[in-house]
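Hi P.,

Sorry for the delay on this. The queue was packed all week, but I finally got your sequence through. Input first:
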Amino acid sequence: MQPTFYVGPFLFSTSGAWCGLCLFVVAWVARSECHRHLLKARHLGYFCLGAAPLMAAGGALAHAVDVGGWRVLGYWLYASAVYPGASFLGGALACWIAAGLYARVVFGRGPRGLAFLDALAPSVLLMYGLGRIGCHLAGHSTCCGRPSESWYAVLYPHTVGLDVRVVPMALVEAAFALGLFSWLWCHRRRMSRRGSVFAWHWILLSMERLCVEPWRLNPRHAFGLTQAQWVSMALLASGIVFLRWTNRSAPPPEKTGAADRGSGS
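Then the structure:
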């Protein structure tokens, strides 16, 4: 499929159209989860307005560091212009930081902050999986795997070349992430502690990236590992710690439902 083509005098982008459709789907899922947790939808809108630029900056800066090394931090303000691109994991990390800050500032230390994080968690996994399909439609070479002559190998003529078939790791990641989203979606109501859904999506996304990264063609750094592998290992460890904390200290949802209805915030 062509990344762009003309419909009459108008230039049409397949990845752009897909991303637009994905935004509606992800927004519907996040809105339904806010409703389930008795949170008003305006919190989702406020968070998205504040988090969107942070996610874009985080993804761009993570890609620049991956390609240009840590010296990029010396000119981080315009590093994304020198090394244009974006890192999904960098965007997800910025999203997690923004979500934690929003929950802390708006809801304080109470259980409603954890409920807000739980409401966002399935949407992050869904957005990651659907976004990888957008990578494939755009023909991004940074999302591909090693050259291969297998039946499932594809051509990315606009970025890789007309004579090199590669493993479509973007589609592999999409299937993996959407499968994990389906598992989390089916089990989210059975998780008995506030914050558990968020902790599990944190762990699952880190595990997904660790599993697929050996087959991706990304720059290698210390000990032959990629930036995504180092970040994923750190996130996996912190996600497990957060899950253990929620299982020991976080209140169960049924004890906070009445308070949520009464506050109406």
